[in-house]
Amino acid sequence: METKLAADIDEHIALFQEVRQSLLGEVVAVGRQLWTCMERGNKILVAGNGGSAADAQHFAAELVGRYMMERRALPAIALTTDTSILTAVGNDYGYDQVFSRQVEGLGKAGDVFIGISTSGNSENLVRALESAKALGVTTVALVGKSGGKMKDLADIVLLVPSQNTPRIQEAQQWIWHTWCSLIDQFHG
Predict the structure, then answer these.
(1) Which residues are annotated as a binding site for substrate?
(2) Judging by beta carbons within 10 Å of its beta carbon (0-12, 13-18, 19+), is residue 69 exposed, middle or buried?
(3) Domain spans in the chain, listed from the N-terminal domain onward
(4) What residue numbers does the annotated binding site for Zn(2+) cover?
(5) pTM of the predicted model, to two decimals?
(6) Block means of pLDDT (10 residues each) for the chain, length 188 residues?
(7) Which residues are annotated as a binding site?
(8) Fold for the domain defined by 2-187
């Protein structure tokens, strides 16, 4: 068991070294873009499924609440939280539209939509990216593996270079935590 755990840690460290080399500059650029979006009076919409839904909610909570420093509440909405909308849209239109319908109702040009997925192939996120683009909303795909369908749709793609779902999620969490840290710094 300890050998497996040590291998997991080694894999985590190796991935983060690769993320540092290949994605750090883009992570910073997106963080700056998110701050600019909110400073202009626009908002961040974020969604994902399963563990990525939890990440979407956590990220939005850090912005509306606070991350590491006291500051004003920032406009961010996790599209994963309203069970009435999710179940109504899922029932009436299909689960593949639970996020796109919300983007259509809440999104406007100048906003940013972030789709979080380990595979990049979640149909409800693909449709949300399409709806966001149609509205002039900037789209960000935070994905792993090959990037899936989302890679070809998003304006900005942050592709975590791993095939291992837990490692992808660990890196994705670091990325959006880093965005929170940058936003705190830009705010200060």
Answers:
(1) 49-51, 62, 91-92, 117-119, 122, 169
(2) exposed
(3) 2-187
(4) 58, 62, 169, 177
(5) 0.97
(6) 92 96 97 97 98 98 96 97 98 98 98 98 98 98 98 98 97 98 90
(7) 49-51, 58, 62, 91-92, 117-119, 122, 169, 177
(8) Rossmann fold (3.40.50)
